[in-house]
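Sample 3 of the quickstart, ligand iron/sulfur cluster:
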Amino acid sequence: MPVVDAPTDSILHALASHGVTRRRFLEFCAATTALLALPQSYAPRIARALEDKKKPTVVWLEFQDCAGNTESFLRAVSPSVGDIVLDVLAVEYHETIMAAAGFQAEAAKDAAVAAGGHIVVVEGSVPTGANGVYCTIGGKSAVQILEEVTAGAAAVITVGTCSSYGGLPAASPNPTGAVGVPELVSGVPVINLPGCPMNVDNMVATIVHFLTFGALPAVDGEGRPLFAYGERIHDHCERRAHFDAGQFAQEWGDEGHRKGWCLYKMGCKGPSTFHNCPSIRWNGGTSWPIGAGHGCVGCSEPAFWDTMTPIYGRLPAPPGFGVTTSVEQIGAGIVGLTAAGFAAHGLIKAGQRKRAHKQDEAPIEIESATADDEEGAGQ
Ligand code: SF4
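Result:
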């Protein structure tokens, strides 16, 4: 992109300085428009927003986390325009990647918060037990830091399942009283990008939507953007034809596994998990867990450590599974039966998911695999 007539602190100027051509920039706008499930007529509007807008200030907090979402954020090998959009964000505070430390780092955070209008990204759950003593930074508890940093913020984005819903630290018996960020933040729009880790393409699209329209994308009943979590993994899985045909891998490395057959019997949780993994994939779109031969573990669902485990345990076959059973019925039945074996919390969440997605999905007929057929299929 040639030298541009744009403020030096604008996104357009930053992209130009990274050598992004006008063509690449417009291709990115078109791709992001598609990812956001918007008509292509919105692409010019997104382009204008990115050309005009100042780089947003970001404060990235880490609490009870493994830094996996930071890894996702930094994953670029050959950076796409989306990676560069993230790269040019004014990330004023990020414990893992910032050069400053100690009082200097705290001062940078305080200055960003004092200016207001910033975006807060949170990675990791927040321990509330014992007055928050299980996670303290600079002498303050995570609860205190979250309250201070989100005051005056424009938006809060939770990245990863721990910050969205509590994740692994909140799994039973939850010794630290860990909770997700939405349980503690009020008065500021919050959006959840769950997953272990979140997919950075969804983060880029969420930020671009916010910059373009001044608001976060529409969400489902779990606070997740519908453009990324509006459909089940099972509905777009590349192995779905084998599920419909009753062809299942029975053991790791068997003929069915080598042929790419369905992983349902190996514990795949795709039928009860909402995420766009099959379409955007990972590592620059090269692959994704099911494509690589491992079943979905349900990592973008609330309380999945309690309701979706054991990871290699097969989801129960719901009653009435047969030729007239719709995907909607299978998903709801699986979620219900799974949750029945665990906590009442899972049942409540399953009901919320069903309500949230009820209007979004028309039933799809399964043309094969009765319960008996399915038991004996795959060989
Ligand atoms: S059960 Fe899993 S592997 Fe099989 S089609 Fe559904 S999502 Fe894909």
